Amino acid sequence: MALPLDTNVLKTARRLLAAGLALGWALLAPPSTSAQAPAAPDVTQVISTAYPEVTAVVTVRDAFGAPVGGLNAAAFRASEDGAAAQVLDVQAAVDAGVGMAVVMVMDTSGSMAGAPLATTQEAAVAFVDSLLPNDKAAVIAFADSVGPPSELTADKQALASTLRGLKASGSTALYDAVVAGVRAAGAAPLPRKVVVLLTDGQDYGARSSATLEDSLAEAGTAGVPVFAIGVGEDVNVPYLQDVAQRSGGQFLAAPAPADIPAVYEGIGRLLRAQYLLRMRLPGQADGGDSELRVTVSVGGATVEGMTHFRRPGIAPQATATATATPEPVAPEAAGGGDGGVSPFVWVMIALLALLVVGGGGVLGFRWVRRRRQAAVSGPTKSTASYHPPRVAEWAGPEAPSARLVVVEGPDAGRSVELSGQAVTIGADADCALRLSDAGGLVGGRHARVWLREGSFMLHHLDKRLTTRVGEREVDWAVLEDGDEIVIGPHRIRFEIPPSP
Questions:
Q1: 3-state secondary structure of 29
Q2: Does 371 fall in a domain?
Q3: N or C terminus of the chain with fewer C-beta within 10 Å?
Q4: What pLDDT, in 10s, does the model give residues 73-105?
Q5: Domain end position, chosen among 265, 298, 314
Q6: For residue 8, is it within any domain?
């Protein structure tokens, strides 16, 4: 039985599509010079190496999200920790000649295979072509692990070659990719820095060594804005929004691969429309934290943006105060006058020790029993409550057809037809291709197959177990006619019928 399409997914997809289209119109519009009241300015970076003289990178957008151009120094005011700062000058980024380091972090996991990766590659190449002469870029690809960054270079042909050479396979080490991206950008020798991250999923396959909290902390303290692009319906939107918000960047939704070029183009326009606000701050270079507020006046309206940054220098160390150590005082014996420990106390200590040892033994026995049960229990106990995210039905013309046939194992001869709906494989009763448990070697919802961009995709679901295509263990795979999927003792052939 094929999985029905969840109406919540449709609603989510519609919301993402509407948001993406609205953002696309806003970002693709030329910089506005109207008197339309702006939204709060975004202070995306503070360049503080020459503190107390600093340069803030500021984006000013109107109420519709379009960049506001044509502002001069008179439109800006600033303060540090509530004390007024002296605004020295303001320049548009395109006129300032200040180089920008762009680190492009690219998801190349198996789910990006085919049209999603091809579209992303060409959109990223076009984005590189739009960079200014003093800008440089590097590429980081991630799947099962995060690859090393390519050379930071202004050579657009070399960057295009790197981007077009990316291949899709494996899982999604997203948390590690965020950490690697902001660190690579932070180490770049150019004053302006930015990360452009694209992913179509979430951290999957337990491949990241960094935790969610680690990656968010890194994004929040690196001083590098992250523009996070989420493609499709399976992205972890709250996480990407959090990364963008903490870093001073933006989250951008691309509901479908066809929307990716517009999002990249919009980011390029936004970066070129930024202002470089140079000012002298009143604080001291003592390594402390500062709150910087930037006020912008446009068309009679005044709006304010805020960020935090760390001042250069060494933070003062707290001075330890010497404290006299009191002389030890022998406890007064209870019931005796010789200064020893009461027998009552020794009895209580012995009883407590027995309780700890006994309780530890019981807990240890229960832990071992649970481990043994987990090793042999069937998937119904461990995965019956797991429902993988729904995937959209095929929305194109007539969906191509294929089928899965069990050719080896206890259920040989069983089959299921594939078309435009997702098909789940596993031991649970509601799976379209139900397989025998085989002593815990088959998960309740072990894997699924669905049609995406004209190809049938296989997605491994049960992290306790494995799925292989041929002899290769996979998390994601694009299936081809004749491929054999191995799940426990079952060998399942993927077949595409000949054209009539």
A1: coil
A2: no
A3: C
A4: 999 999 999 999 999 999 887 776 788 999 999
A5: 314
A6: no
Give one DSSP letter per residue of 252-265, joined into a string: EEESSGGGHHHHHH
Give the 3-state secondary structure percentages of the chain, helix then strand then coil, rounded to 5: 30, 30, 40
Last residue of some domain: 314, 346, 363?
Answer: 314
Return d(Cα 41, Cα 164) in angstroms, integer.
Answer: 35
* CATH label of the domain that carries residue 399: 2.60.200.20
Amino acid at 26: A
> How do residues 15-74 score in pLDDT, each as one tens digit?
444 444 444 434 444 555 444 556 668 888 888 888 999 998 888 887 777 778 888 899
Whether 62 and 165 map to the same domain: the answer is: yes
CA dist., res. 413 & res. 434, Å (int): 12
Residue 118: strand, helix, or coil: helix
- CA–CA separation, 52 and 294 (whole Å): 16
Strand-pair partners of 382: none
Q: Length of the chain, please?
A: 500
Residue 452 main-chain phi, psi, to 5 deg: -145, 125
CA nearest to 183, candidates 218, 156, 153, 213: 218
Residues 247, 158 share a domain: yes
Q: Domain range spanning residue 425?
A: 383-495
Residue 132: half-sphere exposure toward Cβ, Cα within 13 Å: 19
Give the CA distances from residue 404 to residues 2, 394, 411, 416, in Å, rounded to whole numbers and listed in that order.
Answer: 13, 18, 12, 5
